[in-house]
Amino acid sequence: MKIEKISWQGIDAVLLETKVYEAIIVPSVGANLVKLYNKELDIDILRTPTAEEMETFLNRPQIFGVPLLFPPNRIEDGKYTYAGTEYQYPITIPAQNNYHHGIIKSQPFTITRTRISDDAAEVEASFFSNKVNNDIFLDFPHDFVCKMRFILTDNELTHIVTFCNNSAKSMPLGVGYHTPILLPFSKNTDKSDYKLRLSAGKRWELSERGLPTGNLLNLSDEESLLRTEGMAVTGKPIEIALTDEALIDNEKPYHGAILTNTKDNISVYYEVDSQFKHWTLWNNGGEVDWVCPEPQTWAINAPNLNLPKNITGFQTVESGKSWSGTTRFYVK
């Protein structure tokens, strides 16, 4: 087991290493997990920026590694109201007049804890939002701490995000990840060898602005393959919003994505806990070497949807309380 501060692509990073896995975290860019490598199988799981892509990574970290979204996806007109407070964000998609993804993905985190045991290497990175460190506070006036724990073993990487509400009032909470998983991830394979399974239930009908209309639709015949043998996710554009519903894997309920190299029967598992009730599946037009199964705690534009919270996933964290969500990566 090893934890080491390193210089990676010219910036400070933290390396975690076990006998089987290697992970790299960049604290200064949203504590992004930019690399996860299985040494035994020679598999890079995530899209990792090359030296030539570093400028793009610094400007658009959401298409590399495991970027944290807060809030996830779009907010209509960049605003919503909760408990008498109007939350107003800048418009980041002018053509749709929407705000999207938040900026915590670009904010500098601080390493607040490291720990090595016989079977794990663990790093905690924290971000403090308040009136002094106010890049987020200006639009989201809550004093909070975001902690991300990365626990690497020979079997998996466990990623736990925690939000602690230190403000005096209830805090809306929508969290997600914009996770580009490589395909092909195995040597001597082609993109056509890969199929994706996903714990998708219903599909949200989306407007031309990429916002849910409020209607939940059955999966199409092709989309239903996500729940069974797997769907091809290259060669054509995919951008769909989905609810989460357990699929069966190895005779057990499973929540998450499974990207399988059907040639060698090797799968990357991206498992989520019950906090993540929604997905966006996106492939940037279908001609890239990655696909994003994006877990979200709430639906796109959840604060503005006139639907019950148990459908939209809208939730809050009370003053003095905290919330946590867990995801895991492993290869089988």
UniProtKB/TrEMBL annotation:
Protein name per UniProt: Aldose 1-epimerase
BP GO terms, sorted: carbohydrate metabolic process
Taxonomic placement: Bacteria, Pseudomonadati, Bacteroidota, Bacteroidia, Bacteroidales
Domain of life according to the entry: Bacteria
One Gene Ontology MF term: isomerase activity
Cofactor(s) in the UniProt record: Ca(2+)
Quaternary context: Monomer.
Source organism (scientific name): Paludibacter propionicigenes (strain DSM 17365 / JCM 13257 / WB4)
Family matches, as Gene3D superfamilies: 2.70.98.10
Matches recorded under InterPro entries: Aldose_1/G6P_1-epimerase, Gal_mutarotase_sf_dom, GH-type_carb-bd
Keywords on record: Calcium
CDD domains reported in the protein's UniProt record: Aldose_epim
Pfam families the record matches: Aldose_epim
